[in-house]
Amino acid sequence: MSTIPRNPYEFIKGHNKPITVLALSPDRSTIYTGSHDGNITNWNAANGENDRVKGVGHGNQINGMKLDNDYLYTCGIDDSLRQVDIKSNSYTDLQVKLNAQPRGMDFNSSVIVTATIKEIIVLKNEKKVFNLPVDYEPSSVAVSPDAGFVAVGGALDNKVHVYKINDSTYNLEFVAECDHLGPITDCSFSPDGEYLVASDANRKVILYKVPEFNSLAHKQDWGFHNARVNSVAWSPNSKQVASGSLDTTIIVWSVTSPNKHTIIKNAHPQSQITRVLWLDDETIVSVGQDCNTKIWNVTPI
Hints:
This protein is mainly beta. It contains no helices and 26 strands. The radius of gyration is 19 Å and the shape is globular. The model has no long low-confidence stretch (mean pLDDT 95).
């Protein structure tokens, strides 16, 4: 008869609800995952050691999450933006109330952009400096590396809306619209600032040139998913795009050789993939509705 130790060897503070958001520390050594019930866990990317973010947070689904060197910013369906102190691993007292449910958030050069179902909000130093009412129900948002452009996906009109951020007023000025055949699910600028990639519910991943936007980067059809694409992400060298889908697969697309791709089938068996990100040019992290966080080694295309 085996003896059960009185003291546990290790606590693993993962998730028992679907994971909805995923973020990385600037040095990509720490993975942050947020779930449907509002819990956030940080993971050491090298050895899997983890801990739960402490304090009173959203209490329900988190729809956006992004880090700088000192803070983790989150937005949730309690219609608020919150801040986590990285060093103490706990929520701060900062709470910015939003006028509607947020669908996504991005951060760059101390500028935070949040897209709610009614408007796009620009925050500087954690304070609202501009808001733009919209009628197309945003689904996602991305800020370019130089914080010069903002791309917002439309859930109702099947368009990616691109704006320029005014350097002095932080107002958003309309630049372009990119048409898709289905609702936009995610968008992301490449680290080198040369491309914008967007995914949609019509299974497509489409690559646009910056700053033209209406000009496609290639003529190859990136449509090999079998269902809605939920997430797209760039490798640090801007040469590959990873996409995660409702069809449980991850596909890696080559920017330099658009006709080449790698498919990871059943990456999250019987569970849609909700978010993907790159740890480095050969490593992808994925999360899904199965509450799992997985790391994949991939061969560059």
